[in-house]
Amino acid sequence: MQKWLLILVLFTLQKMSYSQNLFDFDKTTQYAQYLFKTKQYKLVIEELERAVYLSPDNDSIKSVLIKTYLIDEQYSEGYNRCKIFYPETSNLPNSISNTYLTLLIKLNKWEEARYLIASCNSLSDEMKKNYEISLAFHIYDVKYIENIYLKNDTLKYPSILSFDPLVKIVENEKLKRPGLAAGLSTIVPGLGKIYAKDYKDGIVSFVFVSLSAWQSYRGFEKRGTKSVYGYIYGGLTLAFYSGNIFGAYKSAKKYNRELKAEVSSRASKIVSENLK
């Protein structure tokens, strides 16, 4: 009886050992590659986290893991893993430094991004200049952009000439002032929206406020203060007029948001192209 029990235990242990081999480093990374190709990124992260546990000094696996966090838009998680893997950013491998910088930009961690650009030894001087200029566009500080760009030696670092079109956009397309937009629409309905380049809504606002105000005037002109018609259109005029002021403020905000997003996206693409 004891002999058969011993055989059963040994057989079970052998089976468990074989099952565990399914989760060794090579099989884990192979399965992660398959999941990555099929865009099952959350499952990729699970497999790669296991691979990092099995091979904690493997920078290549860490690099793919952090990139997968970025692709899956888990920016905070990717950032936290970077902090754990590489508490000292000067030692970041080149394969990870670019992804880490992208995560910092996605999370609006501008000061950390500046520090990483300055301290990371794996980045070439030319790429540091590229990232420095790109960061200026993400922040959208016009004076900072002009100063950073003009101070760089384009003969020494020719790749930064790629930013020329964006420099011209920033110089020509100034951010709109929401308060000014609201003030302009207070004076002339729709003018603030036109200032924010929302031409269609600006014209519509002007027409609606003008027509309702005219109808209200006609009502009071015919029947004086007893005109229900005049009060109804007067209320509509006030509503349209107030909405036109608030709408102008929102239009300026929207214009700024979209302009910043476009410049930021194009700056990231330029850096990616210059990395190739």
**CATH C-level label of the domain at 24-123:** Mainly Alpha
Spell the H/E element sequence.
HHHHHHHHHHHHHH
The biggest beta sheet is recorded as: none
Q: Point out poorly predicted stretches.
A: 1-22
Strand tally = 0
Specify the overall morphology: elongated
Helix % is over 70%
Mean pLDDT: 81
Q: Architecture of the domain at 24-123, CATH level 2? A: Alpha Horseshoe
CATH superfamily (homologous) name of the domain at 24-123? Tetratricopeptide repeat domain
First-residue to last-residue Cα separation: 69 Å
Please give the count of helices: 14
- Strand percentage: under 5%
SS class:
mainly alpha
Radius of gyration: 30 Å
At the fold tier of CATH, the topology name of the domain at 24-123 is: Serine Threonine Protein Phosphatase 5, Tetratricopeptide repeat
Word description of this protein:
Among the domains are: 24-123, Serine Threonine Protein Phosphatase 5, Tetratricopeptide repeat; 178-263. 78% of the residues lie in helices and 0% in strands. It has 14 helices and no strands. It is elongated, with a radius of gyration of 30 Å. Mean pLDDT is 81; it is low at 1-22.
